[in-house]
């Protein structure tokens, strides 16, 4: 029971981390493209 909880919690955290990484990439890309223009 405990291992299942830990696994689900870890999967939840990993999915949130991946979402944050994607958001950071999306937010950081426009700034790089705006500078040259």
Q: Tell me the span between the first and last alpha carbons.
A: 56 Å
Largest sheet: none
If you average the pLDDT, what whole number results? 85
Strand content: under 5%
Gyration radius (Cα, Å) is 16 Å
Pick out the low-confidence regions: none
Shape: rod-shaped
Q: What is the oligomer described by this structure?
A: single chain
Please count the beta strands (DSSP E, at least 2 residues each): 0
- Compressed to H and E, one letter per element, the order equals H
Number of domains: 1
Helix-strand makeup class: mainly alpha
Total number of helical segments? 1
The helix content is over 70%
Domain Enkurin: 1-35
Pfam families: Enkurin
InterPro entries: Enkurin_dom
Protein name: Enkurin domain-containing protein
Characterize this entry briefly:
The chain is mostly helical. It is 89% helix and 0% strand.
Summarize the structure in words.
There is one protein chain. With 37 residues, the chain is mostly helical. The chain has one domain (1-37). The chain has one helix and no strands. The protein has one helix at residues 2-34. The radius of gyration is 16 Å and the shape is rod-shaped. The relative contact order is 0.09. The mean pLDDT is 85. It comes from Schistosoma curassoni. This is Enkurin domain-containing protein. Pfam families: Enkurin. Residues 1-35 form the Enkurin domain.
What is the secondary structure topology, with strand pairs?
Blueprint: H1 2-34
